[in-house]
């Protein structure tokens, strides 16, 4: 075969190979559907710009910017496949910077739903451990928190809790100002306010739900049962652990949990998986000529 003919055949084969579409996967066939969320408009809290509207790609850009240039950062990017043979997607981002005698420690983590539910963040957490000589005053931290997030639902037990229901921050009668929040933060939670918070329902306390979410695995399957039983749509928790002296803050922990989005995303994901599996099991034959 002449050399120029062989070259032409190879080039044509390469072009055809590039033009051939890749094998379709379950994730490729899915049209993302945004899940319902507890937060909207001006009442969309964020942690360092990451809200429950963020997806893995936009959150990763914030992670990379925040920890840029730090050689001692530990990164953990978790992925899994959607369904059997589906495309991989990011389920969680965890970046951390160790604390030192002259350096604040920081941990930032986010968990995401699947591509079917738009890969949205349903859990965001930030943990700051302040170096001894960089501990902020408790009064300044409360001022910053309330300046960003507004008046909390309930204060006490080292926490400011923002409980969201039906598109707004719940109130149980305590009109906190910075001074009253500072006075209440290290006291036990007011039991009368807790009763008002739960109302007449027998559903789970959102304070308990967000506390357990901080310690449990963040997979939707693990968190879903409690999310369905929670007596709220979303929670923002800010914990201020006393430093030395006690009017300073040694550790600040921010946690954002979109309960409504977690439940909605699970329903979307399950429907997409069920639709994909049933479609894949259907016979492909056609009726013969008779």
Question: In words, what does this structure look like?
Answer:
- The structure is a single chain.
- By secondary structure, this protein is of the alpha+beta class.
- It contains nine helices and nine strands.
- Strands 1, 2, 3, 4, 5, 6, 7, 8 and 9 form a nine-stranded antiparallel beta sheet that branches.
- A hairpin with a 2-residue loop joins strand 5 (154-156) and strand 6 (159-165).
- The two termini are 49 Å apart.
- Mean pLDDT is 84; it is low at 1-27 and 277-285.
Helices and strands in order, then pairings?
Layout: H1 3-19, H2 26-29, H3 56-66, E1 74-81, E2 88-97, E3 105-112, E4 121-129, H4 138-149, E5 154-156, E6 159-165, E7 168-169, H5 178-184, H6 191-198, H7 206-215, H8 220-229, E8 234-242, E9 249-257, H9 259-281
Antiparallel strand pairs: 1-2, 2-3, 3-4, 4-9, 5-6, 6-7, 6-8, 8-9
Helix pairs in contact: 4-5, 8-9
């Amino acid at each position: 075969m002449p050399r120029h003919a062989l070259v032409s055949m190879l080039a044509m084969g390469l072009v055809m190979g590039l033009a051939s579409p890749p094998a379709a996967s379950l994730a490729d066939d899915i049209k993302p559907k945004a899940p319902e969320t507890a937060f909207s408009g001006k009442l969309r809290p964020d942690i360092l710009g990451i809200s429950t509207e963020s997806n893995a790609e936009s959150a990763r850009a914030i992670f990379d910017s925040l920890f840029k240039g730090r050689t001692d950062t530990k990164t953990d990017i978790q992925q899994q496949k959607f369904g059997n043979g589906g495309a991989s997607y990011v389920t969680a981002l965890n970046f951390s910077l160790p604390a030192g005698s002259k350096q604040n420690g920081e941990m930032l983590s986010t968990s995401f739903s699947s591509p079917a539910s738009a890969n949205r963040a349903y859990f965001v957490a930030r943990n700051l451990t302040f170096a001894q000589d960089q501990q902020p005053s408790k009064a300044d931290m409360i001022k910053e928190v309330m300046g960003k997030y507004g008046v909390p639902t309930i204060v006490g037990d080292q926490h400011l809790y923002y409980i969201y229901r039906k598109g707004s921050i719940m109130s149980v009668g305590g009109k906190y100002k910075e001074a009253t929040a500072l006075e209440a933060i290290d006291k036990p939670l007011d039991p009368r306010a807790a009763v008002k918070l739960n109302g007449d329902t027998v559903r789970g306390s959102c304070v308990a739900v967000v506390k357990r979410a901080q310690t449990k695995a963040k997979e939707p399957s693990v968190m879903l049962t409690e999310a369905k039983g929670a007596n709220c749509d979303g929670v923002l928790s800010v914990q201020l652990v006393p430093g030395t002296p006690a009017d300073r803050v040694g550790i600040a922990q921010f946690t954002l949990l979109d309960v409504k989005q977690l439940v909605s995303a699970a329903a979307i994901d399950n429907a997409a998986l069920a639709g994909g599996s049933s479609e894949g099991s259907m016979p492909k034959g056609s009726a013969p000529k008779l």
